[in-house]
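Async update (no meeting this week)

Hi team, since we skipped the sync, here's where things stand on the single-chain job. The sequence we agreed to prioritize is pasted below, unchanged from the tracker. I ran it this morning and attached the output directly underneath so nobody has to dig for it. Comments welcome in thread, and please keep replies under the output.
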Amino acid sequence: MTQHFIVIGNPIAHSKSPEIHQVFAAQAGIDISYQRQYCPDDTASFGAVVEAFFNGGGVGANVTVPFKQLAYALCESKGGLSEHARVAGAVNTLLLKSDESQKDHLQKINALYGDNTDGQGLVNHIISLGWPLAQARVAIIGAGGAARGVILPLIQAGIGQLTIANRTLNKAEVLVEELSAASDAINKHAIETCATTELTGQFDLIINATSIGLSDDTLPIADDLNCHYAYDMMYGRALPFLQHFAARGAQTSDGYGMLIGQAALSFERWTAHTIDVVKATEILKQASK
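Output:
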């Protein structure tokens, strides 16, 4: 029996999710249909698309820009949220999950459930690269949605000191306050904040969680900022952030592995099939040549 999945976004034609999940399905030995779903950028349209998909027998949906916050609100009001989604304030994975609080002995009620696999996808990719996270001194540049989704998974992975740098210092400070209020694990972890230009010294790992690498602009990086490992969450082109630290001897990686990693976790949530991400990535890279 064919299982049906979609990715909802606006725009959506560029999404690589259908190709990625078909590779996963082949590895798992199951038959799937995975389609791109365009949606007008408003709350009512998004809710209608989600409802129609699941009422029609859909198994799982991915959510991308600009709907991750809308998906969060929908699950918060009509279903449930994973810890990672609740802390991030965003959902990238939707499924139906049995709601034990509402079922009786005659009826099993399935409620909409939202997860966020972005941050764990990043952590899994870093671990697969062989980069150490235990007690690592980590800096994240950026205080937007991308940074918000990865902080809890990084802390759960056992990192040591964490610094969040942003062009506007106040935005970084507000992010830490909000996340600390949402998660005991984050609240108990000492997090420093600073302006991007004030981020200096030696780090084990620096993560660029801004999208500046997709434009011709460059980050205002201090001359004495160094690291052993540099990771840019963007992918698909030469990234000045990675070029800068590679020239200083750091090991570097773009975010393509994170893309595959978060997708594999979504697939696992939906189907209970664990994906060999390394093999899947090799297949996808060969197919793109």
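Quick observations from my side:
Residues 256-271 form the longest helix (16 residues).
The mean pLDDT is 93.
Reply here if anything looks off.
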